[in-house]
Write a structure and sequence with these properties.
4-stranded antiparallel β-sheet; globular
Length: 77
């Protein structure tokens, strides 16, 4: 049996510049359908395609956030 997943739609609200050269730039993403207090996440601003070519997200970009889990880590609703 395959992994269980749910996809959420989101929008990149802003790009947060690194405060130090050793820390990565972050993308702040607002996730549609999440609870008000938990709708924003910050992730390293690096994405890659199937060939491994890297790019950065831009403010306003529409993105999908996917949550995946092994079947044994889930229960029936």
């Amino acid at each position: 049996m395959g992994r269980k997943r749910k996809k959420f739609h989101g929008t990149v609200e802003k790009i947060i510049k690194s405060p130090a050269p050793t820390e990565p730039e972050k993308a702040q993403i607002e996730i549609e359908g999440a609870d008000h207090l938990y709708r924003e996440i910050r992730v390293e601003n690096v994405v890659a395609d199937e060939n491994g070519e890297q790019a950065r997200l831009k403010p306003g970009a529409e993105v999908d956030v996917i949550v995946e889990a092994e079947p044994e880590a889930t229960t029936k609703p």
